[in-house]
Amino acid sequence: MPKIQVLDKQVAELIAAGEVVDRPASVIKELVENAVDAGATIITVEIRRGGVTFMRVTDNGCGIAPEDVPTAFLRHATSKVVKQDDLNSIATLGFRGEALASISAVAHVELLTRVSGAVSGVRYTGGGSEEYTLEDAGCPEGTTILVRDLFYNTPARMKFLKKDSTEGNSVAGILDKLALSHPEISFRFIRDGKEQLHTPGDGKLSSTIYAVYGREFSSTLIPVSYELGHVKVEGYISAPASSRPNRSMQNFFINGRYIRSRTAMAALEEAYKGSIMVGKFPACVLQMKLSFGAVDVNVHPAKLEVRFVNERPIFDAVYHGVKSALHAGDSPKVMEIKRPAVSPYAPVLEKKEQMRLDMRKPIQSVLQKPVIQRPAQEKPVSAPQTEPFLLKDSQSVDKPPVFTEFLENVLESEPQPVAPQPTPIPAEDRLPLSEVSPSVEETPVQEEIPLPVEEAPQEEPAPAPLREFHSRVIGEAFGTYLMVEYGPDELMFIDKHAAHERLLYERLKRENAGGEAQTLLEPVTVTLDKEEYSAVLNHVDDFLKAGFEVEDFGAGTVLVRSAPLLLDGSDAADAVMEIAGYLTSLRNRMTTEHLDWVYHNVACRAAMKAGDFISREEMISLAEELEQNPDVRYCPHGRPVYILLRRQEIERQFGRA
User: For residue 586, is it left (φ>0), alpha (ψ between -120 and 50) or beta?
Assistant: First the structure.
């Protein structure tokens, strides 16, 4: 157990310190990081009411020596940094010496600790301006810290706390990151008496990912293991087919510390170029290991941002590691069609299958049956030219009895078309033979007069006019723009995606989307980051207004039971993920402006896309609906829906004006 001591003023001023306690999640983060630094292999976290009233962190680490316990609650007291040079190669998660001092200043704190080999431990109590007490106590090896009544003496901070569910989900998010960064440690999270997380601690990252994000997410991952120079990259990335609408599930770790790195993020997404759709983002859990002196973690008080001595090796290692993993592990998506156990069409299908087999039997029997010699007096039968084989003049083939019976059964079971019989004409109404059958000389050269061209039947009916002055849809250019002859003097170009998107958006606003919701045949599960998960649960009613029925499925997953009629199951899942990411930035309840954004998102996903094939009827329908909504001029993103080209301008280009 290293000794805890107060840092010199000169060293303390070099630390990027700041306020570390602003919500229960920050308390849990500091305490769990201390437990990890203490060498614990089992860490248990328990909270109640989002952590506001009760938090407890228990570990089986090295513990704190009795004489060091009072010192541990002083500001800038730590065992991880001694001199100034130690800040250049920090190997521990904590190093500032502010956590316990900051926590005890705003809450009631109780600490129980015992070092290895000691007969008994010590119990420390204190908090705020109260005097602390220190006494012997029986406790297991390791450290247990209880924090009660957070911000009891600072009501100004208390009013900025969010709902208990939101604060609890924020704690869960912190523990997810810590568990993923240390798969060798077994983490257990108990929330209001219920276990929310329990990782095995077997050292396998795949096991931890499964415990944190569930089976659906972990089943789509591709392993990464790559080393370039002094940088080693290990972990998992999502398959291109399982991309997400935002970056919330991108997790990067450096030397066991969760970070936010633009360099690593850019390298990841660059490696996916050409393998993923535009506007989609990959998910990952990537651990980077490099020398402690090559990275500076003493940049931000929250220790989320770091600086590299040289960013290029980090970019190259992540890029080539991900690219190699995609090349080796990405396989084409295989479609599986499962037939139901009992189908109402089974008898029909079985009958068709039997008919197909019966049709094949005679062909095989003809090919395998020896040729039969007919008597000399019978006339030989020559083979038709369409047969797949030729017969000699003296050979013939009898029709197999199986095939004959089959044809007879089919002919008897199916109604045969009856040829129309001529109606007899009475004798008195019959014309003289000369009038019925004129001679060749009397027959005109063209007895039948062909129909006029305009009356000939057409393959496709002419489109209905859009306006009284005969506007008409001409066609489509580049798979994106509809061309409409708009009146006698204008040509209209319609961006079909922008027009359809705006029309759907107006429909959603007009009907408030609730009337267009549909129950999905199979509910869709959506795995979210804990902050997104909390945002969705806090806006369930607003999701319902937008046509989504979502419910809590536990452990960062929501269940989507219904979605707007415009979306299918996969689009509904992507829409929920994208809306959840948007909601994480909202501090208050969703307003009308924010609900409009949801309508934009749904309309954009459901609208026909540039390059999509649409029939002529769909072109006409879109043009007519646009004509009925003259106020629709721009899409929800602000792009024009159509432009007009005047006839005079066209004729000027051709020298006619």
Answer: beta
